[in-house]
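#structure-requests
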Amino acid sequence: MRTPLGPNPITILSIAIGIGAGFLFSRGTAWTAFGGALAYLLACLLDECDGHIARAKNLSSRLGEWLDMIGDYVTDLSLFSGIALGMSHHGHGPNELWIVWSVCFLGLTLHFFVTLIEKKRGF
């Protein structure tokens, strides 16, 4: 755990990379989708690390918990929006995009509420 960064800066870095992943997916090419997938993987790894670092260095805080939860939501929203926008570059009609975005939004909302419930229970 010898890292100069605390958990909150790592969370913010994870959010920024997650937003970048959504942007890459929104470009709609195979290479940018590949880059978006790698960026999302990195964002997920950093998101996992922040909690471990907070516990190991005894730096857990309510701010960090909420920042982590909001960060997950923002990252997921960026990812799903980017995928839908990327699809729009390939001639998919509004009905297809509406279905994809609706399913993504449902997943996003469920993820948010499951995370909220887990945090209330102390997981």
